[in-house]
Every structure is written in structure tokens, then in C-alpha cells.
Design brief:
alpha+beta, Thiol Ester Dehydrase, Chain A, 7-stranded mixed beta sheet, 3 helices
Length: 178
């Protein structure tokens, strides 16, 4: 996958096993195939406290999620053609350490679970490349919606095939409040 270099954006992308990550791999199974990109913290990411703002991490989660989905063959053109999209239902984030201007971050993601119907659970692991320190661990639940009505709809076969084959587990995803 060719990735354009830009300040505060992608430097590269690759799929790597988690046992090659430096630092805290949060007890993950080393067989999990982590899709990752490198991000450099830019001036626009820095807040009044002198470190990367938490909103920057959410933007980086979106960047790595899209890059991973595109590597699986899912993009905005497919969303439009099928009139379906995966949208965020819930984020759960643990900010573990700060990042600063110029830090290079390996932003990783993988599909933890796909129910092959409505939901996927995507996990995240962000490490500072220089020292391997874990900066963020997170999980996001996505739900498939109909683009015309905005209501939840079953995933089309293209989504089931792509996300289901990338998922570490198949099965029910516990929804918030259930």
C-alpha cells in the first residue's frame, strides 16, 4: 500500500505481528496481525499542556482504521455503491502516556471480533517508536448502517468477507447497556 508522507500524517504502513512491537504489548497474543501506520506528532496536534491532545489520538484512530479497511478492500466508493457504512457506536480509550512534538508513533489496529451481522469490534495500540512506550490502548465498536436512512442494517457480504476474515474472533459483540 503506497502511503503519502505529510506532516502529522502517515509515514508508512505495514501489517506486523504484535510480538515485533517494542515495549508493552499489553499481553496480546503474538499471533494477532496488527495493521499499523507511523504518525509524527505535529505542531497542530499539541495542546495548551504541551503534549498531543486527546482529540489528535481519535483522528489518528480514524486514519489507521481507514488505512486498514482500505487494505481489506473497503473504501468510500464501496460504501456509496452498497449504500452501507460502518460507523462508530462506542469508543473506549485508555491514555497511558503523553506524546510530544516530533514523536513518531506506531498506530496499530486489528479487528478483534466480527459478528458477521451488524457489529465489528476494532482494537487499537499506539506505541512511541523511540522507546516503545505504550501511549494508548483502545477499542471501538462499529455498527453497519444504511446510508439512506441512517438506521442499522445487516452488513453486506463484502463487509462480512473482509472484516470477518480479518477478525481474530467471530461471534456476538456485547453492546453497551445490554
Amino acid at each position: 500500500m503506497a502511503v503519502k508522507k505529510e506532516e502529522g500524517g502517515f509515514l508508512s504502513s505495514e501489517a506486523i505481528p504484535t510480538d515485533r512491537l517494542a515495549g508493552d504489548s499489553v499481553g496480546m497474543d503474538p499471533s494477532i496481525q496488527l495493521f499499523s501506520i507511523e504518525i509524527e506528532v505535529a505542531e497542530r496536534n499539541i495542546d495548551a499542556l504541551g503534549h498531543a491532545n486527546n482529540a489528535a489520538y481519535v483522528q489518528w484512530m480514524e486514519q489507521v482504521s481507514w488505512a486498514h479497511s482500505q487494505s481489506l478492500g473497503i473504501d468510500l466508493d464501496l460504501y456509496q455503491r452498497l449504500r452501507r457504512a460502518m460507523v462508530i457506536r462506542r469508543h473506549e480509550l485508555d491514555y497511558l502516556a503523553p506524546s510530544f512534538l516530533g514523536d513518531r508513533i506506531r498506530a496499530g489496529t486489528w479487528i478483534h471480533r466480527c459478528d458477521n451481522k451488524f457489529f465489528i469490534l476494532r482494537n487499537f495500540l499506539f506505541n512511541r517508536i523511540e522507546d516503545g512506550e505504550t501511549l494508548l490502548r483502545g477499542a471501538t465498536t462499529f455498527v453497519c448502517i444504511d446510508l439512506d436512512s441512517g438506521r442499522p442494517r445487516r452488513m453486506p457480504m463484502e463487509f462480512v468477507t473482509a472484516y470477518g476474515s480479518a477478525a481474530q474472533e467471530q461471534g456476538k459483540i456485547n453492546r453497551p447497556g445490554s
